[in-house]
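In response to reviewer comment 3 from the previous cycle, which asked for concrete evidence that the modeling workflow produces usable outputs, we include below a single protein chain processed end to end. The sequence was submitted unchanged, and the resulting structure tokens are shown without manual editing.
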Amino acid sequence: MKYFLKSSDSKCVRMCCCVAGCGRSTPVVSYFRFPDRCTVYTLMNQPLEKPDFFRVSELFSLKDLFDARVHLGHKKGCRHRLMEPRQRQFVHLVESAARGCGEYAHTRYWQGGLLTNAPVQYGPGVRLPDLVPHVGIRDAAKMNIPTVGVVDSNCNPSLLTYPVPGNDDTPVAVETYCRLFKMTINRAKDTRRADGAAARPGGAAPSSS
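The workflow returned the following structure tokens.
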């Protein structure tokens, strides 16, 4: 990734960078303001703006993250070539986590335009199913589809809706992410089922048989 500094203000830097596209680079312009000490203190000590609805904070501790080497990053001079949304060594971990919570996973090669060029890909009148995302960070951003992604120190987080800063190169770290994602999704599904059961007459959950 190449950065071009285009602002004379030392506290506000305009960065023009290239993010992986489908066979070409897509220019992305973002603004970054260097935080002062007061801002850093506030960010590190204030709670999240949204409530922890699914009690994710109960699923791990700070020691767990250190033991999983989530905090490890790349050296200061490292630059990433292109943002790679998939790594072969973690395909099995991601697919197993998705299978464990009854969700879909797409960790293999994906073709650009699956979201933005559906009439050409599938013919006229075809609408992509809501619950089967054909994942591509660029296409999802174009379609305003929220995305969650683990972002290492050599990645560009500008196109992700909810970037998770952390090490994405160590298997034990990726296994930790997958475990937390799976447990959170299962908790969310249990909460949705409980809310649905409470809304029905009698408040009884439907039988699984």
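Residues 1-32, 78-86, 128-134 have pLDDT under 50 and may be disordered. We consider this sufficient to address the reviewer's concern, and the full set will be provided in the supplementary archive.
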